[in-house]
Amino acid sequence: MIRADAERLRVVAHELRSPVAALTALAEAVPAAEDPEVLRRMLALAIAAARDVERIVSDPEHFSLRREPIDLAALAVSFATPVVTVETNGEARALGDETRLRQALSNLVANALRHGTHVVVEVTEAGGLVAVDVTDDGPGIAPGIDPFARGTSAAGSSGYGLWLARGIAEAHGGRLELVDAPGRGARLRLSLPSSGA
Q1: Nearest 5°: CA angle at 19, between 13 and 24?
Q2: Residue 61's pLDDT band (boundaries 50, 70, 90)?
Q3: Parallel/antiparallel/unpaired status of strands 129-136 and 68-71
Q4: H or E element: which one contains 12?
């Protein structure tokens, strides 16, 4: 039991990093924001991050789901920064848990930034699937390495991020896989069934 509790604590600690970092960044940015629309958007992001914290801490499972129609393109756009480019072609809807999918995307983007200097997130919908490709410009993943194995890390991280992201994908009836990247770098693809809405 102690080992299981310690494992859960490590996973929760890992998952809290992203929403806590988002809350910190938003709080630091508020004094410089004068546009009411920008402030409204920042407040909405802060509320989402706070709800993510509440969900992560109170949920006894790692991969429990509360399904609702989610626009994965809009969710991906929320990760856009000067070093994260997001490419979409309109809405890409799936039935899923927004908090869990935000966790998965956050882990994918954080992993990509750990290995490269620029990340491209591309959202497409075809053949009944919504795919989110996260591609970095780093050295790529060496042959024989399973990047989704729990505890696997080549960059000083905890090694839980990609394992959790894959678990979230599979809990949604989807998958997370390493696919060929054009040129240098690594590309991870999160695929989920489209909601058809």
Answers
A1: 110
A2: low
A3: unpaired
A4: helix 2-29
